[in-house]
């Protein structure tokens, strides 16, 4: 799993209620969470899923899916880039 800078994994669905159980998100193997992304309590991020920077994830992200936006929407992952970074 990759967790970008300032990403937030939240675990309290009702911060003002003392009786609310804490439930953090589940992040599967090889998932990537971008910088400043927020994953809400109880959300499941599937294997090899990618959460874009600044996304706010309010529902489960299926495996091998891109989650982008606030609130995050699911999209297919783009094709892998080939070759190096030569310009």
Automatic annotation (TrEMBL):
A molecular function GO annotation: transferase activity
Keywords: Transferase
Keyword Flavoprotein attached: no
Xref: SUPFAM superfamilies: Trimeric LpxA-like enzymes
Region (Disordered): 66-87
Protein name as annotated: Putative lipopolysaccharide biosynthesis O-acetyl transferase WbbJ
Organism: Halolamina pelagica
